[in-house]
Amino acid sequence: MFTGRRDFLMGATAALAGMPWLRGRAVSPRDTSAPIRPVDEPLREGNEQIAMLLYPQCTALDFIGPQYAFACLSGATVHQVAATMGPIVTDTGVTLTPTATFDQCPRDVDVLFVPGGTNGTLAAMRDDDVIRFVADRGARATWVTSVCTGSLVLGAAGLLRGYRATSHWAARDLLAEAHAIPTDSRVVVDRNRITGAGVSAGLDLGYVILALLRDQRYAETVQLMAEYAPQPPFGAGSPDTAPPSTKTIVEAMFTDFRAGVQQTLPR
């Protein structure tokens, strides 16, 4: 009996092996400068250590989208890391449970991931313990990653200097104040830094990381399991396509956040 998504995925290996039409289909995702591994036979298992930061009032979907992808990595260990083992209440009221504290998290990790938010993110950027943890693990991590305004936490930890990076569109330009290079793309890979745009981009980022850690077919298999084929009901998912009045409303929501970031980022 399959006991979880990872077991189910690895159970599909036998079925996938021997399908010649699956071989040789390695195409790099848009905006990905790092090489995607060619398709291997069969689906591979690894032993990655993945640290996913949690902090009060982070955005739940920022965290859950990538977490779904990471949880499908057979053999990997996903650490949900916070300052304490107490429950973390996100900005939408969803409660998430840490599995390790900063001290308990492995010193060397393959992936460091930081979610975004608004008020919670500002508090994290001003929290010495959070920044110390992010800077320490990020200095040695194979991949340093974030979604949405989580990239500003990476910036506050000094991890984006000279790197191309993205964030939520309403805050992306603020990355320049962290000496990063703001880049308008859904997912941006610059060397070992991988950043995603706002909230839902975490789903895309998760699949990009799966392809880099394993290969494209592994990522495609998880994508199909999730039936991730977006067909949004409205064309308002980008500031380039949203009605001007809608864009104005969202920009106003970020006014205080932007001012707080400008006061917080080191010069």
Automatic annotation (TrEMBL):
Enzyme class: lyase
Entry annotated with the keyword Lyase: yes
Keyword Aminoacyl-tRNA synthetase: no
UniProtKB keywords: Lyase
InterPro entries assigned: Class_I_gatase-like, DJ-1/PfpI, INH-QAR, TAT_signal
Recorded superkingdom: Bacteria
Matching Gene3D superfamilies: 3.40.50.880
EC number: 4.2.1.103
Domain DJ-1/PfpI: 49-210
A GO term, aspect molecular function: cyclohexyl-isocyanide hydratase activity
GO biological process: regulation of DNA-templated transcription
PANTHER family xrefs: ARAC-FAMILY TRANSCRIPTIONAL REGULATOR, DJ-1_PFPI DOMAIN-CONTAINING PROTEIN
Protein name: Isonitrile hydratase
Protein's gene: inhA_4
